[in-house]
Amino acid sequence: MGCCDAPGLMPIEQAMPIILNQTPTVKETESLAIEDAIGRVLAQDVRSPINVPPFDNSAMDGYAVRIADLTASLTLPVIGKSFAGAPFDGQWPQGSCIRIMTGAQIPEGCDAIVMQEDVTPNGNDIQFNIDIAALKPQQHIRPTGDDIQTGQLAIEKGNRLTARDLPMLASLGVAQVQVLRKPIVAVFSTGDELKPVGCELKAGEIYDSNRYGIRPLLDKFGCEVIDLGIIPDDEALLYEAFEKAKSIADVVVTSGGVSVGEADYTKDILEQQGEISFWKLAIKPGKPFAFGSLGNALFCGLPGNPVSAFVTAYVLVQPLIAKLSGESQWQEAPRLSAVSKSAFKKNPGRADYQRAIFTVTAQGQLEVESTGNQSSGAFRSMSIANCFAILERERGHVSIGETVQIQPFSAAMY
What we know:
- 19% of the residues lie in helices and 29% in strands.
- With 414 residues, it is α/β, with parallel strands linked by helices.
């Protein structure tokens, strides 16, 4: 595979197509009120049932005029008003103007709006302080359908609805949307040493922190998460947990129990119940990541170390969930070039996702420095980071002043 310190490990670039090629898209749909649909993936295109705006309207507070009237005189009497929701509906005599507010319907015959800053009121008369030659037809008039027209594609299926989309849907009068159901993910941790948060630890025991990172990530990815808790290293209990998980979920995500040489039953059970595509990846942290299938469910076996579990969930499980969700527009967070303010230790062989902090100088230059301890068990360095410094597989140590690729954390991390 070309890995200097890790022969036989599959590169991420090779693993991702395997994961995505085996991942289907959910088919079941449901209809939701738009106020309940944020974060859901559209199952159908949304086309506008109306023009927006539905009528010509003013882009400014000012005065509706006929340009021909102003050509004759720059002083016109006001004969009426047009407000938003209360349009002018009377007769509009020649040689006069109409007071109009932003968003109000344009009176019939109007061909320009002069904003109020360009006039001087004098009783019922308005003096227009403008160059009539510079007044353009349709000035400050928003035409019918200026934003979106009847039948026009508003949002394409496969988009995950955001807070930016809901106001637009509301402006179209769309009250319900058809969305794909959420993928169901069953999660559990394995290990005799793991104990729930809040209990007193005995010798050799640690708290199960992994699910507290994995569950919120899966929530942010748009999943319905079923937490099966902690499963001890007991063959019968593990077998029962896998049987239950694969019967209720689209994806089974575990942490721990997938490292080569561990005294566990996970690998044997997985080989009995499913099919494993790969067990080890050329990624750091997170080498002992496993992927495959369990009956009709997909399986992602995350490493047991907290940072490794979190990083592999973010890097590898996230695109899987996007594909499963039907989110056709999903892309990983962009990678940017930054100048290193600190040295990064690395051996060639694995793509290294080091926790880091990026800043922007007054001159607009991106700079990045390590958060310190990069051990796969040291989660504090993750909690204070705002990006990954992604060091290529073949790369070695990074010196101060070198350029590295960074990936600022996406919204899923916050």
